[in-house]
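Retro notes, structure queue

What went well: the backlog is down to a handful. What didn't: a couple of records were mislabeled last round, so from now on we paste the full input next to the output in the thread. Example, using Glutamate racemase from anaerobic digester metagenome:
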Amino acid sequence: MPLVEAGRTDTYQVTGALREYLFPLQEAGIDTLILGCTHYPFLARQIAEELGPGVRLVDPASATVRAAKEELCRLDLAISGIRPISHCFYVSSRPDAFRAAAGRFLKKDIGPVRQIDL
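Corresponding output:
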């Protein structure tokens, strides 16, 4: 994952790692792969190319967002209308690295990142 965090998703190292990790899944004949890590969606194109058109990729993030929205609505906590958006980011380690990586992926400065102990 350090390559993804560094924004180096189109490198021969990534391609080699994907081939190594995906080969057993291809051999097993999978038809669906759940992208079960926050880093994997950034590699979805490369994963899809490696696995081919017969394997469906599922990004659980969209389902998680839908479930969160439903729960907020059920609890009457959903925001209605347009309001200014603010974000707070908390990480368990390396806040500077997170801020840099998030800025690259989101293409904007995300502001302060706070480190917490869990």
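Agreed that this is the format going forward. Reviewer comment attached to the example: Helices lie at 2-5, 12-28, 44-51, 60-74, 95-106.
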